Amino acid sequence: MLLVDNSVLSLHLVEDALYLDLDAEDEDSSSKTTVLRGFVDITNPKKKRVHSLLICFEGYLSTKQPSVRKRLIQRHLVLNPSSASTMDNNDNGYISRRYPFEMSLFLNDLPDTIQSKNIKVIYQVTAKVAYAYTTRTSRNCPIRLARFPFKNNMLSGDNVSRSSIDSRRHHAHFFDYHITVEKDTVLSVGSLLPLTLWIAPRIPGVRLLSLCVFLVERRSVCCDHHSEQQEEQKKEVKCSAHVLSRADPLQQVVPGHVLKEPWRGTIEYCLPNDLIPSIDAPGLFMIQHTLKVSMAIIFPEITSGKTQRSISFETDVVIRDRQIGLLDKLGAFNLPEYEYNALLSPPRTPPPVYEHPPSYSIS
Fold it and tell me: Which pTM does this prediction carry?
């Protein structure tokens, strides 16, 4: 006997991203809980009874080279079918009910959400409903996990944990140079990198010929997770190098003339959109980034006339998730997912008033 499903099921999350604490010095960080909030709306005939309602949170890791697929987490939350609040009681024989829920999750040991060609880490929430006579249906919603460089969930002020890039002042027999990236800069996927260069000639005739900035991405993937020895033997490392382009090639240029006095300038470089955020997931994979700055200098020499030298500086950097860059730049309340656009047709409705869920059980 084929049963026709004449019910409507929808799953809504209060937030489509879960932000995790990044505080390496906190020994109890693994015991911190993150709360997933949302609600399930069910519209079905009045005579059709909801037998069971289950919320499932799942996460998966998949890589191409080497080929790895692994389940990272699976948690269930059982809701009481009789705990719903009635939203609409129609005369046509249908009734709409809402089931709010809260799920406490231990997520600090999990990697962030990653969507790339080589590595994918995805998380999703699924609502599974079973009706009488074994009719079943389900709906799922993707959800992002991201770590932000802020201590104790504070998003501004001195609680922001940042690190600056500073080459210190270097001395050569023909010129001095100093490379910095301001401390208040959060480097994220697709953002701008403001590089400040100070250069001072020590002899006449010094000229800065070119300035190139590279970003190297190293991806280490573990094929086996049984022991530390196997982990080292099965680890495969892939590298990709990106030449960063200038945000404004016409306005932001280095001086091509002979330097007669110290020169200082800030040039903004575009970080690629296909980067993977820096992350260390022990036993799974590691993503590392290195910034390299290369300068070509021409200066006069007595024996050979003009001489060209290449000077380079490199340092490890941390690239954050794109959402973290928006969070730092715009603030939590100005993120795109919270914007109201009156020009949309039909217009977006404001988020519903949140209802506290009843007691529940986690399996």
Answer: 0.74
Burial of 252 by CB count in 10 Å (0-12 exposed, 13-18 middle, 19+ buried)? middle
Name the residue with higher pLDDT: 217 or 328.
Answer: 217
Could you identify the residue written with the tokens 């993937």? Answer: 221
| CA–CA distance, 186 with 294 (Å, rounded to integer) | 22
* Tokens matching residue 291: 């910034």
> Under 8 Å CB-to-CB from 20, ≥6 apart: which residues?
34, 107, 108, 112, 145, 146, 147, 148
Highest mean pLDDT among 171-185, 259-273, 334-348: 259-273
One-letter amino acid of 99: Y
How high is the mean pLDDT of the chain? 79
pLDDT of amino acid 347: 40
Q: How do strand 17-20 and strand 136-147 relate by DSSP bridges?
A: parallel
Relative to beta strand 285-301, strand 305-317 is antiparallel
359 CB burial (10 A radius; 0-12, 13-18, 19+) = exposed
Q: Is residue 22 predicted with pLDDT exceeding 70?
A: no
Instruction: Count the residues in the chain.
Output: 363
What's the pLDDT score for residue 28? Answer: 55
Do 164-317 and 8-155 have the same topology in CATH? yes
CATH code, 8-155: 2.60.40.640
User: Which sequence spans correspond to the domains of the chain?
Assistant: 8-155, 164-317
Q: Which residues fall within 8 angstroms of residue 110, CB to CB, at 6 or more apart? A: 59, 72, 73, 145, 281
Please provide the CATH number assigned to the domain covering 164-317: 2.60.40
| Helix locations, the chain, DSSP H | 228-234, 322-330
Question: Would you say the C-alpha torsion 21, 72, 57, 111 has a positive or negative sign?
Answer: positive
CA distance 210 to 257: 11
Q: What angle do CA 218, 224, 226 make, to 5 degrees?
A: 130
What letter would DSSP give residue 284?
T
In this predicted model, what pLDDT tens digit does every residue of 303-337 receive, in sequence order?
667 888 888 999 999 998 887 777 666 555 555 55
